[in-house]
Amino acid sequence: MLQTIEIKVPEERVGVLIGKEGEIKKRIEEATGCKISVNSRTGVVRIERGEDAIGFLKAQDVIKAIASGFSPEVAFKLLEGDFIILEVINLADYVSPSALQRIKGRIIGKEGKMRKSIEETLNVFVTVGDKTVAIIGDVESVSAAREAIMMLVDGAQHATVQKFMERKKRDIKMRSMDWEAI
Q1: H/E/C letters for each residue in the chain?
Q2: How far is 105 from 115, CA to CA, in rounded Å?
Q3: Do 160 and 94 touch, CB atoms closer than 8 A?
Q4: For residue 50, what are the contacts with CB-CB under 8 A and spacing of at least 6?
Q5: From CA 46, how far away is CA 143, in angstroms rounded?
Q6: Which residues pair with 37 in a beta bridge?
Q7: Dihedrals φ, ψ of 50, to 5°?
Q8: What angle do CA 81, 84, 87 make, to 5 degrees?
Q9: Which domains does the chain have, with CATH numbers?
Q10: What is the pLDDT along the chain (182 residues), one digit of tens a residue?
Q11: pTM over 0.90
């Protein structure tokens, strides 16, 4: 039995997913062993599982990452290791439509400083879409970034969130040092 899944990609991201002469789509297929077909009119992407179940899951993540606004180069980081994950936060689940723009502004920060700070402090990639915030990184860092973003959604001051992220960064670093000692 062939396993397939369909993912809706925003119209403006279909070209990015396909890539010049189909190169991005081809790279995803080669890396994951899946067959991918894109309906460029509707934005529906159909992923057909190959031999590798993990490749099937990774193909979905890479396509969701590109659909969320990440460049293909950043999305392909999801293929690099088993501990690199994608998390998509649907802001519409947490804030009213009237507050969406303001909350996105808080997450991005003045001249993009807050988003950049989240990325640099926690070593993750962040993209803010229409109603979503997507994060790519290792499991612990993505979890910390999600927490920081949710603090901003809940109205915490930028300075408070910055201190929280610095503390998380130290904790993650200490834990990785513990592992290296083993």
Answers
A1: CCCEEEEECCHHHHHHHHCHHHHHHHHHHHHHCCEEEEECCCCEEEEECCCCHHHHHHHHHHHHHHHHCCCHHHHHHHHCCCCEEEEEEEHHHCCCCCCHHHHHHHHHCHHHHHHHHHHHHHCCEEEECCCEEEEEEEHHHHHHHHHHHHHHHCCCCHHHHHHHHHHHHHHHHHHHHHHHHC
A2: 10
A3: no
A4: 32, 33, 34, 35, 56
A5: 29
A6: 46
A7: -95, -145
A8: 150
A9: 4-79 (3.30.1370.10), 84-181 (3.30.1370.10)
A10: 579 999 999 999 999 999 999 999 999 999 999 999 999 899 999 999 999 999 999 999 999 999 999 999 999 999 987 789 999 999 999 999 999 999 999 999 999 999 999 999 999 999 999 999 999 999 999 999 999 999 999 999 999 999 999 999 999 888 877 666 55
A11: yes
- Packed helices 23-32 and 53-68: angle between N→C axes, nearest 10 degrees: 150
* Chain centre distance of CA 98: 24
